[in-house]
Design goal:
Layout: H1 5-29, E1 32-36, H2 43-59, E2 63-67, H3 74-82, E3 89-93, H4 95-104, H5 112-115, E4 116-125, E5 128-132, H6 140-149, E6 155-158, H7 164-176, E7 181-184, H8 188-196, E8 202-206, H9 211-215, E9 219-224, E10 254-261, H10 266-280, H11 283-291, E11 295-296, H12 301-320
Parallel strand pairs: 1-2, 1-3, 6-7
Antiparallel strand pairs: 3-10, 4-10, 4-11, 5-8, 5-9
Helix pairs in contact: 2-10, 2-11, 4-12
C-alpha cells in the first residue's frame, strides 16, 4: 500500500530532523587536540591554552591541550606525526621546536619544512636581558664593561644545551664581544628561580614571568630585546636605546605558531585554516595575549614558513662559527 502524501511528507520531515540531529551529534563528539611539546607554564603552553577555547568556538567542537614532554620536544612532535592525518591534531611550536632542533639534533625525527603544514604564527614576544639583583651593573654598557673586566666570571642560564635560549644567548654574547659560562636548566621557570636566587648572573632573554621578579627588586632588567620598549616593563630601554653600536639594529623576538602534520586532506586543512583565521581575529584572544606579554601576529602560513627557513639558515651559520659546543 502506498503511503498517503501527508504521511510521506511527515516521514520525510522526520528523517531530515533525525539526520540533522545525528550530524550535530557527530560534530559535538569530535575533539581536536593541540599537542604542546613543552612543559606547562612556558610560552608555548600559555599561548596554546589561550588559543584553544577560541579555536573550539570557531570549529564548533572541543579543543584540548595535551602536553607531551621529553627529548627537547621531539616526543610531542613525533606523537603528533603518528596521529591520524584528519585535521584533528595540531602542534604548537616555537623556534626551539621548528628551527633549533632540526639544526642541533642529528636525528630529530622530523623536518619542519616538509613534515609541518603551517597554519601561522599566533603571537610573538620580546623580553628583557635580566641580571641578579646584586650584580654591580645598571645597564647594558655596564654589563659589557663588567664582563671585560672580569673575564670568565659571569654565568648565564638557559633551558638546556642546544635550546633556543642557549643559541640566542651565545649569539648576543658574540654580538657584544663578551663571554659568559653556560649553566643549563630544565625550563624557563627554573632559570628564573636560579637568577632570583643568585645561582646564575644573567638570563639573556626573559619573558612575562620575570615581570614580578623585576618589580619586587629580586632581579634587574637591563634592556628589552627588541628595537622598541616592551609594554610589560616600559621603563626598561630597548636595545636601540642602550647606546651600544652593536645593538642599534640587533633584536630578538620569539614566537609561537601552530601547524598541522603534512598529508592532512585538503578539505580538512581548509576547514581548520578558516577556523584558525577566525580565531586570530578574536578581540578576546588578542586582549588575552597582550595581557600575558605577547603581541598578536598575522597568522599567515607563508610568513611562518619563511620565518622557519630563515631561522634555520641563521642558526646553521652560528653553529658553523664554532662558538657553541653542543657536547
Amino acid at each position: 500500500m502506498r503511503a498517503r502524501p501527508e504521511l510521506r511528507a511527515l516521514l520525510l520531515a522526520a528523517g531530515l530532523v533525525l539526520g540533522g540531529a545525528c550530524a550535530s551529534a557527530n560534530a559535538a563528539s569530535q575533539v581536536s587536540t593541540i599537542i604542546v611539546p613543552a612543559p606547562p607554564g612556558g610560552p608555548i603552553d600559555r599561548v596554546a591554552r589561550l588559543v584553544a577555547p577560541e579555536l573550539s568556538a570557531a570549529l564548533g567542537h572541543p579543543v584540548v591541550v595535551d602536553n607531551r614532554l621529553g627529548a627537547a620536544g621531539k616526543i610531542g612532535v613525533q606523537a603528533a606525526l603518528r596521529a591520524p592525518r584528519d585535521g584533528h591534531t595540531l602542534i604548537a611550536v616555537s623556534p626551539s621546536i621548528a628551527s633549533v632542533n632540526p639544526v642541533v639534533d642529528k636525528a630529530p625525527g622530523y623536518d619542519p619544512l616538509t613534515d609541518f603544514d603551517a597554519l601561522g604564527i599566533a603571537a610573538t614576544n620580546a623580553g628583557v636581558v635580566a641580571v641578579r639583583a646584586d650584580l654591580p651593573v645598571a645597564d647594558m654598557a655596564g654589563l659589557v664593561q663588567y664582563a671585560k673586566a672580569h673575564p670568565g666570571e659571569l654565568t648565564y642560564g638557559s633551558f638546556g644545551i642546544g635550546t633556543s635560549l642557549h643559541l640566542q644567548s651565545e649569539e648576543l654574547l658574540h654580538t657584544l664581544g663578551i663571554d659568559a659560562r653556560h649553566i643549563p636548566y630544565k625550563g624557563e621557570a627554573q632559570v628564573m628561580a636560579a637568577l632570583a636566587g643568585g645561582e646564575v648572573d644573567l638570563m639573556l632573554y626573559a619573558t612575562a614571568p620575570i615581570v614580578p621578579l623585576v618589580q619586587s627588586g629580586r632581579v634587574r632588567a637591563l634592556a628589552a630585546t627588541s628595537s622598541r620598549r616592551w609594554a610589560m616593563l616600559p621603563q626598561v630601554p630597548s636595545y636601540a636605546e642602550t647606546g651600544l653600536p652593536a645593538l642599534r639594529t640587533y633584536q630578538y623576538r620569539s614566537w609561537v605558531g601552530f601547524v598541522l602534520p603534512t598529508g592532512t586532506p585538503a578539505a580538512q586543512r581548509q576547514e581548520v585554516l578558516q577556523a584558525w583565521q577566525r580565531t586570530l581575529a578574536s578581540p578576546k584572544l588578542r586582549e588575552a595575549l597582550a595581557v600575558q606579554g605577547f603581541e598578536p601576529a598575522s597568522g599567515d602560513p607563508a610568513e611562518m614558513q619563511r620565518t622557519i627557513a630563515g631561522e634555520i639558515g641563521r642558526l646553521r651559520a652560528l653553529l658553523a662559527s664554532g662558538r657553541i659546543k653542543l657536547d
